[in-house]
Amino acid sequence: MGATRSPVEPSRPSIAISLAEPERSELDAALTAAGYNTIQLQPGESIVEAFSASTPTLIAVVDVAGDPAAAAARVEEARRGRAGHLSVMFLAGDAELDGLEAAGLVDVDEIWRVEAMAIRAQVPTEHSSDAVLSGGNVDSTWTPAAPVFAVFNPKGGVGKTTIATNLAAVLQIRKRLNVLLLDADTVTGHVAMSLGLPNGRSAADSWIDEDAGYTHESLLDLATVHSSGIRVVALSSNPLSHPTLKPDRVTDAISEARHAVDAIIVDMHPSYSDVNLGIFAIADRIIVPVTPDLPAMRAAIQLKEVAVEVGVRDRLAMIINRANSGVTVADMESTVGLPAVAHIRSAGLHFVWSANAGMTLIDKFPRHQATQDFEHLANRLVASYSGEPAPQRSTSSLLRNLFGRKAIVEA
Ligand SMILES: Nc1ncnc2c1ncn2[C@@H]1O[C@H](COP(=O)(O)OP(=O)(O)OP(=O)(O)O)[C@@H](O)[C@H]1O
Ligand SMILES: [Mg+2]
């Protein structure tokens, strides 16, 4: 059967796809949308068919489909006598790896390079049930890394804790994500209290025990579950800075948790401590609440300068809090020099009433306008993190299909 070609001009490398349906069409649609020239091959069809005068160099995606020797033979046949270059990505199950290695075509070490690339690319996920881990026989490190949203402004009282807590709630309740809310305000943190939760064991408590020879506990092991489903854990319950609170230990713990939940929100202390700089370094977004007053705006301008210095300027996302209190959004954007990704209006005593009930605004007042503001903020963050929303076919389902088997690159 002849190869079919898509009409897209080859502005990028041509990719021949030798997969069974429906994966072939799914991958073809995704690659075509990304601007690649694709060539669809039936499973087992000769790759030689895909070469032409206009595509001397080719990338092929080849399903090993239970027969490594046949897959290897097809690649060898395609390469024989060709001036052009053929790079191949094999999709193989565990049992097929040995056959590919025996054929001398793949270096099994390459698998780990691909895995590292996939993790670094932070495959987006919409829900933990979408995690590649649920695809079957895959290492836990294949789980997509959850985004880390740090909430910070060096000025006190601008709404960091309010925004961290309610953003966590809206992601958990309305976006159905499993959310870890980390109270990293080691001085005046009160996230658990505001949610009516007992002060559980903190990370610092656990690390003291770990250093004394007890087993390691992850942030998830330590977290208390709120009635909304949010998991809540504090870095420290001791306001005096703790010797175990080293930046590396904090960032390692957060990185470990990224493979166990769908999103991590970090409520930060208003200072430029080493721990905070460490959190900046691993955060995907640094959410900066700014209230419409000069001290809060000045603090945000200062933060912008610090962020340039530490190389995280592009992660800053300003949120105007108590937005309906005089100064316009446009004036604040031009004064601070950051675009506002969302605004949260003043909700008066509703936050206090929510806290008195051990709840967030989102579960206590689901129809309040400020709750809608949080939903809008969550939509913006989810969209900006996972890229273009794909209404017809989610990117994560396509990746899961591919990653349900191992992908091995051989160039
Ligand atoms: N949009 C809002 N509407 C009404 N009240 C708000 C709003 N945002 C914050 N508040 C209130 O302002 C006070 C300070 O907010 P919050 O504790 O969240 O600030 P913070 O930046 O975390 O402070 P700190 O720097 O001390 O940690 C709280 O009483 C909170 O309920
Ligand atoms: Mg706070």
Structure, briefly:
This protein is α/β, with parallel strands linked by helices and 411 residues long. Helices cover 38% and strands 17% of the residues.
Structure description:
It is a single chain. The chain folds into 2 domains: 4-124 and 391-410, Rossmann fold, CATH 3.40.50; 148-386, Rossmann fold (3-Layer(aba) Sandwich), CATH 3.40.50. Helix content is 38%, strand content 17%. It has 16 helices and 14 strands. An 8-stranded mixed beta sheet has the order 8-9-7-10-6-11-12-13, with helices on both faces. The protein has a 6-stranded mixed beta sheet with strand order 1-3-2-4-5-14, sandwiched between helices. Helix 9 (247-257) runs parallel beside helix 10. The longest helix has 18 residues, at 369-386. The chain starts with a strand and ends with a strand. Mean pLDDT is 80; it is low at 115-142 and 387-409. The structure holds adenosine-5'-triphosphate (ATP) and magnesium ion.
Mind sketching the topology for me?
Elements: E1 4-5, E2 14-18, H1 23-33, E3 37-41, E4 58-63, H2 68-79, E5 86-92, H3 94-102, H4 109-120, E6 148-151, H5 160-173, E7 179-184, H6 191-194, H7 203-211, H8 219-222, E8 224-225, E9 231-234, H9 247-257, E10 263-268, H10 274-282, E11 285-290, H11 294-309, E12 316-321, H12 329-336, E13 340-344, H13 350-356, H14 361-364, H15 369-386, H16 395-403, E14 406-410
Helix pairs in contact: 1-16, 2-3, 5-15, 9-10
